Amino acid sequence: MTLNRNNSRQKSDRKQLLMLSGLLLAIVAVAAVCTELSSGQSKSQTAGPAVQKQDTVSQSAAGTESPKPEASSGKDAGAAGSSKAGDGSQEMIVLTDGKSAAASSDDLTITAAESEEKPSQAIVVQTDGLKGDNALCDLGLAYERGTGGHAVDYARAAYWYAKGVKEGSTCAMNSLGYMYMEGAGVQKDYSSAFSLFLLSAEKGDAEGAFAAGYMTERGWGTDYDVRKAFGFYAMAAEKGYAPAENAVGTMFESGAGVDKSYEKAFKWYELAARDGDVNGIYNLADKYRQGKGTAPNNEKALELFGQAARMGNAYAQYDYGSMLAAGLGTEKNLVEAYAWLKISTDTLKQGEGILGAVSYLMSKDDLAKAERLAEDYRKKYKSLASSAAVSLSDAPASDKISSTYPKKN
Would you say residue 321 has pLDDT above 70? Predict the structure, then answer.
């Protein structure tokens, strides 16, 4: 991104004119950002799960204030089981690490063995505080994240999630779905992931419906169908699930699966922002900046970009820094602008051009101050391009799906 701005000064000698020409080049670059910021050349951000789900629920919300998707039929739940398994019987599952395991759902005791020739080692897991349908999911989560005294073990996490699915836990359905999407602890399988999300959605779970919509929108593990995807998103959004509220907004903005409406998009972004969704906050800021669905308001846009920037959204950090550099919605502040642009370049290459232009306009002391500030901000506000674009290689599979939204249990 570049900025176009004319800022001329009269100089009397050749040396001053040469200095001026260099300064103008920098100012032109900085000012170009203003032009682009004002013209609204920005894409809506949607964050989603790495899983898919959705099979039914087709709806067009054209002409309605808020979408009300039809209930899904759930006939494609596939391999995801729903039978109870609380009879204490032993079941054998082959784990991806080559080990075998026997488990009793009554006492939650795992017996694991490297091979038939070696003596088995009993591992009794702590179940204090684990109650209700999510107890097995919580146990799986402990293995997935390496908490509660357990080493990280994706295969065991998947095992306990599978047990939770049999008990009807939507938490377990979603968690195992994420693992099938990522191939963590189980073989990667989008169809199985979608089936699990669909099963969760049919039980009324908002996260499952959102994941199903995300997969249906992309044709992962199911047929590509934006109308059905919109229906799943709408189902989750009406339950107050913030990522889905943002997704409904993006579909109204783009006209995917529903009649295009900036006004409705703006309203859904407001809801997503209110509920703390970082992409919803960014998209709301962008609509204020562009004046789409609402009156233009640079002051409000700046405030919201700043909020999303502090939540680690790299695009917001870039736009926030650009507005500070251009003096849009506030007085120009090159030190702050440089700091935000600097940390955005950890993820986004597009910030490098304007960063150089801003630094050209700064004194040596101010530049040193801005560098220190950038280091401070880097520690406080880790830059993520977006939950949809970032791969957290050392995070649990479920977190990779939606890096800015902690998985609900």
Answer: yes
